[in-house]
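User: Second chain of the day. Same drill as before.
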Amino acid sequence: MAPYPGQGGTLLISTEGGTTPKWSRDGRELFYRNGDKMMAVDVQTSPAFGAGTPKVLFKGTFASSYDVSPDGKRFLMVKPPAASLAPTDQVTVVLNWFEELRRRVPAEK
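Assistant: Same format as last time:
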């Protein structure tokens, strides 16, 4: 992390890398993704800028973009369909599809 704009040193937040950082609304916490992990690190700005130890909030397979609620306790994330997570070698063929549909969802008169 480096100051913007202006000059100054950099501060390493994560030794394991990370992507898509977002600040909490109050500026006391920084959230970021590290593979399938959602991470958070406490930060302080006074008397000098400093960062705590990153912690794993939760793990899961999600799309790269996300948002954080104003209180920093909830996340809005998109989870891909389960079918797209695991490879499959099976194909399902439905014969007489319309008859099956009529049987399962009878038309109301």
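Strands lie at 19-23, 29-34, 37-44, 50-51, 55-59, 66-68, 75-77.

User: Great, on to the next one.
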